[in-house]
Write a structure and sequence with these properties.
Elements: H1 26-56, H2 62-89, H3 98-104, H4 117-145, H5 148-169
Helix pairs in contact: 1-2, 1-3, 1-4, 2-5, 4-5
């Protein structure tokens, strides 16, 4: 069953916006808030997918992978804050609860029965790669809309996701 990716707002059918002196037009800000809501939900989701792996990983290389997952969790948690702050800076209302994140995430649910480090590494790599592809589309959307700051934010996140994918894939490539 496919999830409805429509952002949930205050029941008015529109993106909730606050007055701001931000120079971007209200239409562009509204579109960017919707874009950023999806990435906020995804960032929160991937943050806790990574923590789920951190808590439950087992295997011969346990400590290295356990620490890698903790580092990746910290990195993605920073993305959460950056996305939420950009979203609110342009007049949006960040939807950062667990329930909102489930509704807005672009990712598939993370399996709760994984144990082996390679299984966690492969599954997390899939999630990071899926988000990375969505970030690239978001960069294009922000560029076309004329919002260079959202474009820059997503570009930085994309660079970080690529590096995270490299760190995880290096465990099972070769």
């Amino acid at each position: 069953m496919a999830k409805d990716k429509t952002p949930k707002n205050a029941g008015n059918g529109k993106t909730q916006m606050h007055k701001t002196m931000n120079p971007i037009s209200e239409n562009i800000r509204g579109a960017m808030v919707e874009l950023l809501q999806a990435h906020l939900g995804t960032a929160i989701d991937i943050t806790y997918q990574t923590k789920q792996a951190h808590w439950n990983v087992k295997g011969m290389n346990f400590i290295a992978v356990h620490e890698l997952f903790d580092d990746l969790h910290d990195l993605t948690e920073g993305y959460v804050d950056d996305i939420a702050e950009r979203l609110t800076a342009i007049g949006g209302q960040a939807h950062g609860t667990v329930q909102a994140s489930v509704q807005n995430s672009l990712l598939d649910a993370y399996p709760l029965d994984l144990v082996k480090s390679e299984d966690h590494l492969r599954r997390l790599t899939e999630s990071y790669a899926k988000w990375s592809a969505a970030v690239e589309k978001g960069i294009e959307e922000a560029s076309e809309a004329g919002d260079p700051l959202t474009e820059d934010l997503l570009t930085g996140i994309g660079r970080g996701l690529d590096k995270s994918i490299y760190f995880m894939e290096s465990h099972f490539q070769g």
